[in-house]
Design goal:
The protein is α/β, with parallel strands linked by helices. An 8-stranded parallel barrel has the order 4-5-8-9-10-11-12-13, surrounded by 5 helices. Strands 1-2-3 form a 3-stranded antiparallel sheet, with no helix packed on it. A two-stranded antiparallel sheet has the order 6-7. α5 crosses α7, α6 crosses α7 and α12 runs parallel beside α13. It is globular, with a radius of gyration of 23 Å. 47% of the residues are buried.
Protein backbone atom coordinates (compact mmCIF):
# COMPACT_ATOMS: atom_id res chain seq x y z
CA UNK A 1 0.00 0.00 0.00
CA UNK A 2 2.92 2.31 0.68
CA UNK A 3 4.15 1.81 -2.87
CA UNK A 4 0.67 2.50 -4.19
CA UNK A 5 0.62 5.80 -2.31
CA UNK A 6 3.93 6.88 -3.82
CA UNK A 7 2.70 5.94 -7.30
CA UNK A 8 -0.37 8.12 -6.76
CA UNK A 9 1.94 10.95 -5.77
CA UNK A 10 3.69 10.62 -9.10
CA UNK A 11 0.32 11.04 -10.80
CA UNK A 12 -0.23 14.31 -8.96
CA UNK A 13 3.25 15.65 -9.60
CA UNK A 14 3.57 14.77 -13.25
CA UNK A 15 2.53 17.26 -15.91
CA UNK A 16 1.76 14.49 -18.37
CA UNK A 17 -1.24 12.85 -16.73
CA UNK A 18 -2.04 10.36 -19.47
CA UNK A 19 1.45 8.96 -19.57
CA UNK A 20 1.63 8.81 -15.79
CA UNK A 21 -1.75 7.09 -15.58
CA UNK A 22 -0.34 4.45 -17.90
CA UNK A 23 2.77 4.15 -15.72
CA UNK A 24 0.72 3.77 -12.54
CA UNK A 25 -1.30 1.04 -14.22
CA UNK A 26 1.87 -0.83 -15.07
CA UNK A 27 3.21 -0.41 -11.56
CA UNK A 28 -0.05 -1.61 -10.01
CA UNK A 29 0.02 -4.66 -12.24
CA UNK A 30 3.54 -5.30 -11.07
CA UNK A 31 2.55 -5.05 -7.40
CA UNK A 32 -0.27 -7.55 -7.88
CA UNK A 33 1.71 -9.90 -10.04
CA UNK A 34 1.85 -13.37 -8.50
CA UNK A 35 4.90 -14.40 -10.51
CA UNK A 36 7.67 -14.46 -7.96
CA UNK A 37 10.43 -14.56 -10.57
CA UNK A 38 9.69 -11.35 -12.53
CA UNK A 39 12.90 -10.32 -14.19
CA UNK A 40 14.78 -7.21 -13.08
CA UNK A 41 14.64 -5.94 -16.67
CA UNK A 42 10.89 -5.53 -16.32
CA UNK A 43 11.39 -3.49 -13.16
CA UNK A 44 13.95 -1.31 -14.94
CA UNK A 45 11.55 -0.65 -17.80
CA UNK A 46 8.79 0.38 -15.37
CA UNK A 47 11.10 2.72 -13.52
CA UNK A 48 12.40 4.29 -16.73
CA UNK A 49 8.87 4.95 -17.96
CA UNK A 50 7.99 6.53 -14.61
CA UNK A 51 11.12 8.67 -14.85
CA UNK A 52 10.07 9.96 -18.26
CA UNK A 53 6.61 10.74 -16.89
CA UNK A 54 8.03 12.82 -14.05
CA UNK A 55 10.90 14.47 -15.88
CA UNK A 56 9.12 15.12 -19.17
CA UNK A 57 10.79 14.68 -22.55
CA UNK A 58 13.98 16.76 -22.35
CA UNK A 59 15.26 16.37 -25.92
CA UNK A 60 13.71 17.00 -29.30
CA UNK A 61 12.38 13.78 -30.82
CA UNK A 62 10.30 12.69 -33.81
CA UNK A 63 6.77 11.34 -34.01
CA UNK A 64 5.89 10.42 -37.57
CA UNK A 65 6.16 13.56 -39.72
CA UNK A 66 6.39 15.92 -36.75
CA UNK A 67 8.74 16.80 -33.91
CA UNK A 68 7.89 16.42 -30.25
CA UNK A 69 9.29 18.13 -27.17
CA UNK A 70 7.96 17.85 -23.62
CA UNK A 71 5.31 15.44 -24.91
CA UNK A 72 3.85 17.96 -27.37
CA UNK A 73 4.03 18.47 -31.15
CA UNK A 74 6.36 21.39 -31.88
CA UNK A 75 7.30 23.39 -34.97
CA UNK A 76 10.86 24.64 -35.55
CA UNK A 77 10.62 28.32 -36.43
CA UNK A 78 14.03 29.89 -36.88
CA UNK A 79 16.86 31.19 -39.02
CA UNK A 80 20.29 30.25 -40.29
CA UNK A 81 23.30 31.92 -38.71
CA UNK A 82 25.56 29.85 -40.91
CA UNK A 83 28.72 31.70 -40.04
CA UNK A 84 30.22 34.86 -38.63
CA UNK A 85 33.70 34.26 -40.06
CA UNK A 86 33.34 31.48 -42.62
CA UNK A 87 34.84 28.32 -41.10
CA UNK A 88 36.63 30.20 -38.33
CA UNK A 89 34.04 30.76 -35.62
CA UNK A 90 34.87 27.93 -33.21
CA UNK A 91 37.94 26.20 -31.80
CA UNK A 92 41.23 27.53 -30.45
CA UNK A 93 39.40 30.31 -28.64
CA UNK A 94 38.10 31.86 -31.88
CA UNK A 95 34.58 32.01 -30.46
CA UNK A 96 35.80 34.51 -27.86
CA UNK A 97 38.20 36.45 -30.09
CA UNK A 98 37.60 40.02 -31.17
CA UNK A 99 39.00 41.25 -34.47
CA UNK A 100 37.98 44.82 -35.14
CA UNK A 101 39.20 44.55 -38.74
CA UNK A 102 36.90 41.60 -39.47
CA UNK A 103 33.48 41.87 -41.12
CA UNK A 104 32.27 40.04 -38.03
CA UNK A 105 34.48 41.20 -35.13
CA UNK A 106 33.16 38.84 -32.43
CA UNK A 107 31.59 35.42 -33.12
CA UNK A 108 30.30 35.05 -29.55
CA UNK A 109 28.57 38.43 -29.65
CA UNK A 110 27.05 37.74 -33.06
CA UNK A 111 25.69 34.30 -32.20
CA UNK A 112 24.27 35.54 -28.91
CA UNK A 113 22.70 38.49 -30.71
CA UNK A 114 21.07 36.06 -33.15
CA UNK A 115 19.79 33.82 -30.34
CA UNK A 116 18.41 36.82 -28.44
CA UNK A 117 16.68 38.19 -31.54
CA UNK A 118 15.18 34.82 -32.41
CA UNK A 119 13.74 34.54 -28.91
CA UNK A 120 12.50 38.14 -28.86
CA UNK A 121 10.66 37.67 -32.13
CA UNK A 122 8.99 34.41 -31.19
CA UNK A 123 11.32 31.92 -32.88
CA UNK A 124 12.85 28.80 -31.35
CA UNK A 125 15.74 27.48 -33.46
CA UNK A 126 19.06 28.30 -35.12
CA UNK A 127 21.16 26.47 -37.72
CA UNK A 128 24.94 26.93 -37.37
CA UNK A 129 27.90 25.71 -39.49
CA UNK A 130 30.94 24.27 -37.70
CA UNK A 131 33.89 22.83 -39.68
CA UNK A 132 32.62 24.02 -43.09
CA UNK A 133 35.61 22.94 -45.25
CA UNK A 134 38.04 22.32 -42.41
CA UNK A 135 39.56 25.81 -42.38
CA UNK A 136 40.40 25.71 -38.67
CA UNK A 137 38.71 22.64 -37.18
CA UNK A 138 39.30 19.80 -36.77
CA UNK A 139 43.11 19.53 -36.72
CA UNK A 140 44.46 17.72 -39.81
CA UNK A 141 47.90 16.18 -40.21
CA UNK A 142 49.87 16.70 -43.43
CA UNK A 143 48.68 13.22 -44.48
CA UNK A 144 45.04 14.26 -44.10
CA UNK A 145 44.19 12.37 -40.94
CA UNK A 146 42.48 14.10 -38.01
CA UNK A 147 44.38 14.34 -34.74
CA UNK A 148 42.04 16.37 -32.46
CA UNK A 149 39.05 18.70 -32.38
CA UNK A 150 41.22 21.84 -32.27
CA UNK A 151 44.79 22.55 -31.31
CA UNK A 152 43.96 23.95 -27.86
CA UNK A 153 41.00 21.64 -27.08
CA UNK A 154 38.59 24.52 -26.53
CA UNK A 155 36.04 23.65 -29.21
CA UNK A 156 33.68 21.58 -27.07
CA UNK A 157 33.59 24.17 -24.29
CA UNK A 158 32.94 26.94 -26.82
CA UNK A 159 29.97 25.01 -28.19
CA UNK A 160 28.74 24.39 -24.66
CA UNK A 161 28.93 28.11 -24.00
CA UNK A 162 26.77 28.87 -27.03
CA UNK A 163 24.31 26.10 -26.15
CA UNK A 164 24.03 27.30 -22.56
CA UNK A 165 23.07 30.77 -23.79
CA UNK A 166 20.59 29.24 -26.23
CA UNK A 167 19.01 27.16 -23.47
CA UNK A 168 18.44 30.29 -21.37
CA UNK A 169 16.47 31.72 -24.28
CA UNK A 170 14.65 28.48 -25.25
CA UNK A 171 16.34 28.25 -28.63
CA UNK A 172 17.40 24.92 -30.16
CA UNK A 173 20.69 24.89 -32.09
CA UNK A 174 21.41 22.57 -35.02
CA UNK A 175 25.11 22.10 -35.79
CA UNK A 176 26.20 21.50 -39.39
CA UNK A 177 29.55 19.72 -39.68
CA UNK A 178 30.59 20.06 -43.35
CA UNK A 179 29.72 22.07 -46.46
CA UNK A 180 29.37 20.37 -49.84
CA UNK A 181 28.04 23.45 -51.62
CA UNK A 182 31.38 25.21 -52.07
CA UNK A 183 34.90 24.06 -52.91
CA UNK A 184 37.48 26.41 -51.47
CA UNK A 185 41.20 25.91 -50.95
CA UNK A 186 40.55 23.64 -47.97
CA UNK A 187 38.01 21.33 -49.58
CA UNK A 188 40.71 18.70 -50.18
CA UNK A 189 40.33 17.83 -46.50
CA UNK A 190 36.65 17.00 -46.93
CA UNK A 191 37.36 15.20 -50.20
CA UNK A 192 39.90 12.93 -48.50
CA UNK A 193 37.50 12.07 -45.68
CA UNK A 194 34.89 11.06 -48.25
CA UNK A 195 37.32 8.94 -50.25
CA UNK A 196 39.41 7.36 -47.49
CA UNK A 197 37.86 5.18 -44.75
CA UNK A 198 40.98 5.32 -42.61
CA UNK A 199 41.06 9.12 -42.61
CA UNK A 200 37.33 9.25 -41.88
CA UNK A 201 37.88 6.90 -38.96
CA UNK A 202 40.46 9.29 -37.48
CA UNK A 203 37.90 12.11 -37.66
CA UNK A 204 35.26 9.95 -36.01
CA UNK A 205 37.52 8.85 -33.17
CA UNK A 206 39.55 12.01 -32.59
CA UNK A 207 36.93 14.71 -33.14
CA UNK A 208 33.34 13.69 -33.90
CA UNK A 209 32.70 11.27 -31.06
CA UNK A 210 34.46 13.43 -28.46
CA UNK A 211 32.20 16.32 -29.54
CA UNK A 212 29.04 14.21 -29.54
CA UNK A 213 29.90 12.72 -26.15
CA UNK A 214 30.72 16.13 -24.71
CA UNK A 215 27.40 17.63 -25.88
CA UNK A 216 25.07 14.66 -25.42
CA UNK A 217 23.37 16.13 -22.34
CA UNK A 218 22.82 19.60 -23.80
CA UNK A 219 19.07 20.31 -24.02
CA UNK A 220 19.59 23.21 -26.40
CA UNK A 221 21.26 20.98 -28.98
CA UNK A 222 18.47 20.21 -31.42
CA UNK A 223 20.55 17.92 -33.58
CA UNK A 224 23.50 17.37 -35.91
CA UNK A 225 23.65 17.83 -39.67
CA UNK A 226 26.42 15.86 -41.37
CA UNK A 227 26.72 18.03 -44.49
CA UNK A 228 25.13 21.01 -46.14
CA UNK A 229 24.02 20.20 -49.70
CA UNK A 230 26.17 17.19 -50.64
CA UNK A 231 24.58 17.37 -54.11
CA UNK A 232 26.85 20.30 -54.94
CA UNK A 233 29.84 17.96 -54.81
CA UNK A 234 28.38 14.89 -56.52
CA UNK A 235 29.30 13.75 -59.99
CA UNK A 236 26.93 12.41 -62.65
CA UNK A 237 27.61 8.71 -63.10
CA UNK A 238 25.47 5.84 -64.22
CA UNK A 239 25.37 2.88 -61.86
CA UNK A 240 23.29 -0.28 -62.09
CA UNK A 241 22.46 0.13 -58.41
CA UNK A 242 19.74 2.80 -58.03
CA UNK A 243 21.29 3.88 -54.72
CA UNK A 244 24.44 5.03 -56.46
CA UNK A 245 23.10 6.09 -59.84
CA UNK A 246 23.18 9.88 -60.29
CA UNK A 247 22.64 10.30 -64.01
CA UNK A 248 19.13 11.62 -63.29
CA UNK A 249 20.78 14.73 -61.77
CA UNK A 250 22.18 15.81 -65.15
CA UNK A 251 20.72 19.13 -66.17
CA UNK A 252 19.04 19.78 -62.81
CA UNK A 253 21.47 22.46 -61.67
CA UNK A 254 23.18 20.29 -59.07
CA UNK A 255 26.95 19.56 -59.10
CA UNK A 256 27.67 23.31 -59.02
CA UNK A 257 30.56 23.09 -56.54
CA UNK A 258 32.28 20.35 -58.50
CA UNK A 259 31.95 22.40 -61.67
CA UNK A 260 34.10 25.09 -60.03
CA UNK A 261 37.18 22.91 -59.57
CA UNK A 262 36.53 19.60 -61.31
CA UNK A 263 36.25 17.63 -58.07
CA UNK A 264 33.26 15.31 -58.25
CA UNK A 265 32.47 12.72 -55.62
CA UNK A 266 30.60 9.45 -56.29
CA UNK A 267 27.30 8.80 -54.54
CA UNK A 268 28.55 5.55 -53.04
CA UNK A 269 31.36 7.30 -51.18
CA UNK A 270 29.14 10.19 -50.10
CA UNK A 271 26.54 7.84 -48.63
CA UNK A 272 29.27 5.91 -46.82
CA UNK A 273 30.68 9.17 -45.45
CA UNK A 274 27.24 10.16 -44.11
CA UNK A 275 26.30 6.72 -42.77
CA UNK A 276 29.50 6.30 -40.79
CA UNK A 277 29.24 9.70 -39.08
CA UNK A 278 25.56 9.33 -38.15
CA UNK A 279 26.25 5.93 -36.59
CA UNK A 280 29.26 7.32 -34.73
CA UNK A 281 27.18 10.11 -33.21
CA UNK A 282 24.36 7.78 -32.17
CA UNK A 283 26.83 5.35 -30.64
CA UNK A 284 27.76 7.87 -27.94
CA UNK A 285 24.76 10.21 -28.02
CA UNK A 286 21.28 8.61 -28.12
CA UNK A 287 19.60 11.92 -27.25
CA UNK A 288 19.94 14.02 -30.39
CA UNK A 289 18.70 13.82 -33.96
CA UNK A 290 20.83 13.69 -37.11
CA UNK A 291 20.12 14.75 -40.70
CA UNK A 292 21.59 16.05 -43.98
CA UNK A 293 20.76 19.43 -45.55
CA UNK A 294 19.73 18.66 -49.12
CA UNK A 295 19.00 20.78 -52.17
CA UNK A 296 15.47 20.47 -53.54
CA UNK A 297 17.08 19.69 -56.91
CA UNK A 298 18.27 16.41 -55.45
CA UNK A 299 16.02 15.41 -52.58
CA UNK A 300 12.95 16.95 -54.20
CA UNK A 301 13.29 14.62 -57.19
CA UNK A 302 14.10 11.43 -55.32
CA UNK A 303 15.08 10.46 -51.79
CA UNK A 304 18.84 10.23 -52.13
CA UNK A 305 19.36 9.20 -48.51
CA UNK A 306 17.05 6.27 -47.84
CA UNK A 307 17.78 3.98 -44.92
CA UNK A 308 18.61 1.09 -47.23
CA UNK A 309 21.00 3.10 -49.41
CA UNK A 310 22.85 4.54 -46.43
CA UNK A 311 23.20 1.13 -44.79
CA UNK A 312 24.22 -0.54 -48.04
CA UNK A 313 26.95 2.05 -48.62
CA UNK A 314 28.26 1.27 -45.15
CA UNK A 315 28.32 -2.47 -45.91
CA UNK A 316 25.45 -2.86 -43.43
CA UNK A 317 27.98 -2.46 -40.62
CA UNK A 318 26.43 0.73 -39.25
CA UNK A 319 22.73 0.00 -38.98
CA UNK A 320 21.92 3.16 -36.98
CA UNK A 321 23.52 5.45 -39.55
CA UNK A 322 20.26 6.75 -41.05
CA UNK A 323 18.50 10.12 -41.05
CA UNK A 324 16.07 11.00 -38.26
CA UNK A 325 14.42 13.75 -40.30
CA UNK A 326 14.71 15.28 -43.74
CA UNK A 327 15.85 18.79 -44.60
CA UNK A 328 15.42 20.48 -47.96
CA UNK A 329 16.59 23.87 -49.27
CA UNK A 330 14.75 25.91 -51.87
CA UNK A 331 15.41 29.10 -53.84
CA UNK A 332 13.71 30.58 -56.88
CA UNK A 333 15.89 31.01 -59.96
CA UNK A 334 15.14 33.72 -62.51
CA UNK A 335 12.20 34.62 -60.30
CA UNK A 336 10.58 31.19 -60.48
CA UNK A 337 10.54 28.23 -58.11
CA UNK A 338 11.17 24.75 -59.46
CA UNK A 339 8.21 22.38 -59.56
CA UNK A 340 9.56 20.38 -56.61
CA UNK A 341 9.86 23.29 -54.19
CA UNK A 342 8.08 22.88 -50.84
CA UNK A 343 6.27 26.14 -51.52
CA UNK A 344 4.60 24.81 -54.68
CA UNK A 345 3.73 21.19 -53.92
CA UNK A 346 0.27 21.02 -52.39
CA UNK A 347 1.41 19.36 -49.14
CA UNK A 348 4.52 17.84 -47.55
CA UNK A 349 2.96 14.39 -47.95
CA UNK A 350 3.32 14.82 -51.72
CA UNK A 351 6.99 13.97 -51.23
CA UNK A 352 6.06 10.30 -51.17
CA UNK A 353 9.65 9.06 -50.78
CA UNK A 354 10.09 11.24 -47.66
CA UNK A 355 6.96 10.13 -45.83
CA UNK A 356 7.09 9.00 -42.24
CA UNK A 357 9.63 11.53 -40.96
CA UNK A 358 9.63 15.27 -40.31
CA UNK A 359 10.63 17.56 -43.19
CA UNK A 360 12.27 20.90 -42.41
CA UNK A 361 12.59 23.64 -45.03
CA UNK A 362 16.15 24.37 -43.98
CA UNK A 363 16.96 27.30 -46.30
CA UNK A 364 14.77 29.80 -48.14
CA UNK A 365 14.36 33.55 -48.52
CA UNK A 366 11.89 36.17 -49.62
CA UNK A 367 14.41 37.76 -51.99
CA UNK A 368 14.54 34.43 -53.86
CA UNK A 369 10.99 33.48 -53.03
CA UNK A 370 9.35 33.50 -56.42
CA UNK A 371 7.12 36.40 -55.38
CA UNK A 372 6.14 34.97 -51.98
CA UNK A 373 6.62 37.13 -48.91
CA UNK A 374 8.49 35.85 -45.88
CA UNK A 375 5.25 35.60 -43.89
CA UNK A 376 3.61 33.57 -46.65
CA UNK A 377 6.59 31.21 -46.66
CA UNK A 378 6.58 30.64 -42.90
CA UNK A 379 2.79 30.35 -42.94
CA UNK A 380 2.83 27.71 -45.67
CA UNK A 381 5.50 25.68 -43.92
CA UNK A 382 3.45 25.68 -40.70
CA UNK A 383 0.09 24.73 -42.24
CA UNK A 384 1.10 22.36 -45.04
CA UNK A 385 2.72 19.47 -43.25
CA UNK A 386 6.28 20.63 -42.67
CA UNK A 387 7.95 20.39 -39.28
CA UNK A 388 10.12 23.48 -39.41
CA UNK A 389 11.39 26.45 -41.42
CA UNK A 390 14.75 28.28 -41.22
CA UNK A 391 15.24 31.45 -43.29
CA UNK A 392 18.58 32.40 -44.91
CA UNK A 393 20.56 33.93 -43.25
CA UNK A 394 20.81 36.04 -40.12
CA UNK A 395 23.82 38.12 -41.16
CA UNK A 396 21.83 39.31 -44.18
CA UNK A 397 24.86 39.10 -46.49
CA UNK A 398 25.46 37.31 -49.76
CA UNK A 399 23.34 36.27 -52.70
CA UNK A 400 19.87 35.03 -51.80
CA UNK A 401 19.88 36.29 -48.22
CA UNK A 402 17.11 38.36 -46.69
CA UNK A 403 17.81 41.21 -44.32
CA UNK A 404 17.69 40.42 -40.63
CA UNK A 405 14.56 42.54 -40.23
CA UNK A 406 12.74 40.62 -42.96
CA UNK A 407 13.56 37.31 -41.30
CA UNK A 408 12.40 38.53 -37.90
CA UNK A 409 9.09 39.49 -39.52
CA UNK A 410 8.71 35.87 -40.58
CA UNK A 411 9.35 34.63 -37.04
CA UNK A 412 6.81 37.04 -35.60
CA UNK A 413 4.16 35.66 -37.94
CA UNK A 414 4.33 32.27 -36.19
CA UNK A 415 4.89 33.63 -32.69
CA UNK A 416 2.77 31.83 -30.06
CA UNK A 417 1.13 29.49 -32.57
CA UNK A 418 -0.02 26.17 -31.16
CA UNK A 419 -2.20 24.32 -33.62
CA UNK A 420 -1.65 20.68 -32.66
CA UNK A 421 -3.45 19.56 -35.82
CA UNK A 422 -0.95 21.50 -37.98
CA UNK A 423 2.61 22.59 -37.18
CA UNK A 424 2.29 22.50 -33.41
CA UNK A 425 3.69 24.56 -30.55
CA UNK A 426 6.28 27.24 -31.36
CA UNK A 427 6.86 28.57 -27.85
CA UNK A 428 9.00 25.72 -26.56
CA UNK A 429 10.56 25.35 -23.12
CA UNK A 430 14.09 24.06 -22.59
CA UNK A 431 14.07 24.88 -18.87
CA UNK A 432 11.15 22.76 -17.72
CA UNK A 433 9.00 19.76 -18.56
CA UNK A 434 6.14 21.63 -20.26
CA UNK A 435 6.21 24.00 -23.23
CA UNK A 436 4.99 27.57 -22.89
CA UNK A 437 2.10 27.22 -25.34
CA UNK A 438 -1.46 27.56 -24.12
CA UNK A 439 -3.74 24.56 -24.27
CA UNK A 440 -5.96 26.09 -26.93
CA UNK A 441 -5.30 27.20 -30.47
CA UNK A 442 -4.46 30.82 -30.99
CA UNK A 443 -5.88 32.24 -34.22
CA UNK A 444 -4.01 35.26 -35.43
CA UNK A 445 -6.41 37.91 -36.79
CA UNK A 446 -5.91 39.26 -40.25
CA UNK A 447 -4.52 42.76 -40.19
CA UNK A 448 -5.72 45.40 -42.64
CA UNK A 449 -3.31 46.10 -45.46
CA UNK A 450 -1.24 42.94 -44.90
CA UNK A 451 -1.11 40.25 -47.54
CA UNK A 452 -2.04 36.96 -45.97
CA UNK A 453 -3.26 33.74 -47.45
CA UNK A 454 -5.04 31.25 -45.25
CA UNK A 455 -4.37 27.56 -46.00
CA UNK A 456 -7.57 27.43 -48.08
CA UNK A 457 -6.62 30.56 -50.05
CA UNK A 458 -3.11 29.26 -50.64
CA UNK A 459 -4.55 26.04 -52.02
CA UNK A 460 -6.64 27.97 -54.50
CA UNK A 461 -3.68 30.12 -55.40
CA UNK A 462 -1.65 27.04 -56.32
Amino acid sequence: SGLRTRATGVLLLSQNGLLTFFCVGLLTAFLHCKAARMKMLTVAVLLSVLYVAVQGQPYLSTDGQHFKLNGQRVFLSGVNMAWCRYGRDFGDGQYYSNKSSSVCPSPKSKYEEAIQNIANNGGNSLRVWLHVEGQSTPVFSSWGSVTQTDSTNQLINELKDMLSYAKQHNVLVFIVLWNGAHHGENFWKVRDLVWDDLKLRTYVEQALQPMALGLKDERALGGWEIMNEPEGSLGVWHDSDPCYNTDFLAGTGTLWAGNSDGIYLPMHRMLRFINRQIAAIKEVDPNHLVTVGSSEKGQGIRNLYTDDCLRKAGDYSFHTGVLDFYETHTYAHSGTYGSQTPFLVSHARDYTSLRGRPIVIGEFSQVKGGGMTITEQFNRAYYYGYAGAWSWHYAGSGDGSDTTDTQMMGLRWLRNKNDQAKGGCVKINLNGSANRCSGRRRVRPRRPGRRFFSPRQLRRKD
